[in-house]
Amino acid sequence: MKFWLIYKEATKQQKIRWIKKWGIIASGSFVLSFIGMLLLAKLMGPPALFVPQTTIMYAADGSKMGEINNGGQNRYWVPLEKIDKDLISATISIEDKSFYKHNGFDIKRIAGALLADIKAGAKVQGASTITQQYARNLFLTHEKTWRRKFQEAFYTLRLEMSYSKDEILEGYLNTIYYGHGSYGIQSASRYYFGKNAQDLTLGEASILAGIPKGPSYYSPILHEENAKKRQGIILSAMAEDGSIKKDAVKEAVSEKLTYVREEEEEIAAVAPYFQDAVMRTLKKELNVNTNSIQFGGLRIYTTLDPKMQEVAEHTIENRIIDNSKIQTALVAMDPRSGDVKALVGGRDFGESSFNRALQAKRAPGSTFKPFLYYTALEHGYTASTPIKSEPTTFAMGDGVNDYKPKNFKNRYANDFITMAQALALSDNIYAVKTNLYLGPKKLVKTAKKFGIKSELAGIPSLALGSKAVGVLELTNAYGVFANGGKKVEPVFITKITDSKGEVLYKHKYESEQVIDENKAFVMTDLLAGTFDEKLNDYTSVTGSSINHYLTRPMAGKSGSTPNDSWMVGYAPQLVTGVWVGYDNNEELHDVNDTGYSKRIWAYFMEEALKNKQILSFEQPEGVTAVTINPQNGKLATDSCPVTRISYYEKGTEPVEFCDEHGASSEIKEKLEKKEEKKGFFKRIFSW
């Protein structure tokens, strides 16, 4: 107030001097402030250009199988060279004609906008450059305050000082909002026209370039008339700039456009349980945080085989009756690499996202027996080793009730059977006797060697699969038999890149030889016997109900408890495990319930491998093939009515000929010669 009184009483010359003085001070302050801001911007360096982007999952064949985005905001980054040139020209013509000439601020345009606002008495014209809009999209809100404008100017300086014009333009086109949840030109191109940003026509490009000014008002879907008017303005500006010929304007305006609204179409989720497994792998095994998954624009390349997945889903849908509440899980893997090719964790992900392939643990029943019989091979058993199958009560001698296992439907040979028969028939008496003879702790140790991580107990009933395991771990464990004794880890993700293709993670395939190659092949032959009716004449082998489905070499084992039904098996290039049961652990109701797992497995294996090369299991050098009588495991003679080629480790094959059907003098002579060749110890302890 005092200064104003002095100023009023001052002479004209004094007033002029004061105005000049304070004008110089103000100008100097402005210049110094501007220089200071430039220096600060330079010292701070390039701003981080973090832009939330949609993460995409790809199947093994390169097809897109799923997306992860932030609340329906679809964002995809594409390089400038993969954006249609007409779209780029249209955007520059309507948004910032001098983009490649100014340093972030178009002074002439700012002055013009200010004059227009003064004349109108309101803000009627914008003057923001592409760089300013990019800065606002990256770092700021859209509130109209002086503080926000100052911050915008500062970020604009930093962008212009640190990045090229092409980099700024690329960033702008990948972040600007085009309406309907589409951020960036790639998302917009896909949403409105169902195509990539590099494939747009001039008519499509000029429509899209007009949307950012008012995404709702200029949406061609909501207000096509407004969009077409703005299209005309943009095309005229392009013709004026010389980026298109005048003749092209009329042609583009009259071009018939079809809006597909791709992202709004109802698209069936591809392998939702598999995607759930991928998400678990990202978070728990690869330690990728949730923000990076949701906003990082990752490209996740998976092992999923879409055709096998489709076969798995259709098989389950078609093989289980609609009104049943029974649940199922299926895992299919390549045993050579560990790549998970298909995974189903339940009958309907929409109704229940509980992933039974990964999260559920159920008693595997007789599917656990192959680990027992591998242990037996390690301790002197062969496919021909005989043990008597008859009702047996085991006195445990520990003060607990005696243990009395039973065979299915109380069927017993009441005679000696071989290990090959015991596995094919799923004889429980043979299994428990073997487990007790070896010592149950040995079976626990073997199962861990195969990769079974679930808690086990060294008890007699472990031989019958009394302890719960997961579908994925059991399937992977069978893969050790299939690949010649190597343990591999299940693989869901092969590679992760950022949106620009930079590799962030690549899976390193590793394997470990955990069991003997020769014994693994012998076990495969034994497991193939579950489909071979020759192995028994008093009851059916466990795979008899599905062996007519199988057209290629396969091995496997079924298993059941009162509450669970399993089938796990393999061909050389594919191992599959199937579980069927009720979530509330109620007992299986009927033969349909108990038969689902085998039928699903057989149909899936055949369809999944259809038109693929038929491979045989590769016989190692340490294994020999001999022709035996499968009813007693002895070498077959011409008199034997049934014969089978069986495999043994060299030196463990049977030497005794079958004499149940009358042996010729020639056979006796061969027997005597073989006995003479054997050493004293082997002759005395031939077992």
TrEMBL record:
Reactions it catalyzes: [GlcNAc-(1->4)-Mur2Ac(oyl-L-Ala-gamma-D-Glu-L-Lys-D-Ala-D-Ala)](n)-di-trans,octa-cis-undecaprenyl diphosphate + beta-D-GlcNAc-(1->4)-Mur2Ac(oyl-L-Ala-gamma-D-Glu-L-Lys-D-Ala-D-Ala)-di-trans,octa-cis-undecaprenyl diphosphate = [GlcNAc-(1->4)-Mur2Ac(oyl-L-Ala-gamma-D-Glu-L-Lys-D-Ala-D-Ala)](n+1)-di-trans,octa-cis-undecaprenyl diphosphate + di-trans,octa-cis-undecaprenyl diphosphate + H(+); Preferential cleavage: (Ac)2-L-Lys-D-Ala-|-D-Ala. Also transpeptidation of peptidyl-alanyl moieties that are N-acyl substituents of D-alanine
Presence of keyword Cell wall biogenesis/degradation: yes
Pfam name, any one: Transpeptidase
Keyword entries, A-Z: Carboxypeptidase, Cell membrane, Cell shape, Cell wall biogenesis/degradation, Glycosyltransferase, Hydrolase, Membrane, Multifunctional enzyme, Peptidoglycan synthesis, Protease, Transferase, Transmembrane, Transmembrane helix
Transmembrane segments: 21-41
InterPro entries named in the record: Beta-lactam/transpept-like, Glyco_trans_51, Glycosyltr_51/Transpeptidase, Lysozyme-like_dom_sf, PBP_transglycosylase, PCN-bd_Tpept
Name listed for the protein in its UniProt record: PBP1A family penicillin-binding protein
Organism: Fictibacillus barbaricus
High-level lineage: Bacteria, Bacillati, Bacillota, Bacilli, Bacillales
